[in-house]
Amino acid sequence: MSTEGGIFPMWSPSGREIFYRSTSGMMMAAAVEGSSDFHVDKPRVLFEATPYENTFSVSPDGKRFLMMPLIAPEAAPTQVHLVLNWLDELRQRVK
User: Fold this and answer.
1) What is the per-residue pLDDT for 67?
2) Radius of gyration of the chain from Cα atoms?
3) 14: buried, middle or exposed (CB in 10 Å: 19+, 13-18, 0-12)?
4) Quick one: which of 80, 48, 85 has its CA closest to 65?
5) Strand 6-11 and strand 26-34: pairing?
6) Long-range contact list for 72-81, CB < 8 A, 24+ apart?
7) In the chain, at which end, N or C, are there fewer CB atoms within 10 A of the end residue's CB?
8) In angstroms, rounded to a whole number, what is the distance separating the alpha carbons of residues 57 and 22?
């Protein structure tokens, strides 16, 4: 399919294309013909996929992709609250 590598391949619902992520983060498609000889056309770029998670799904008509956007990790905490003798305070409140 690709001389440059790729990850997460998935057949289109029609079986006439294969979709995959290039190692540079682009969403790719390659047309496939499987009559007597197996033939794959040169892959083409569909769109930039780096803002999305690697895994994806293809709609039944093969025209849309379901992809989760990457979510930025939470920022490191800037404060720490230390509570001393919390068990003693809890016991007093429960009595």
Assistant:
1) 94
2) 25
3) exposed
4) 48
5) unpaired
6) none
7) C
8) 16
Beta bridge partners of 67: 56
SS3 content of the chain, % helix, strand, coil (to 5): 10, 45, 45
Identity of the amino acid at 25: G
Residue 43 to residues 16, 24, 85, 89: CA-CA distances in angstroms? 13, 14, 65, 67
- Coil, strand or helix: which one is 93? helix
Q: State both tokens at 13.
A: 């619902």
pTM above the 0.85 mark?
A: no
- Of 15, 28, 22, the residue nearest 60 (C-alpha): 15
User: Cα separation of 83 and 81, whole Å?
Assistant: 6
Tokens of 78: 């800037």
3-state DSSP call for residue 9? Answer: strand
The predicted structure's pLDDT at residue 65: 94
Torsion angle (degrees, nearest 10) of CA 52, 54, 55, 61? 60
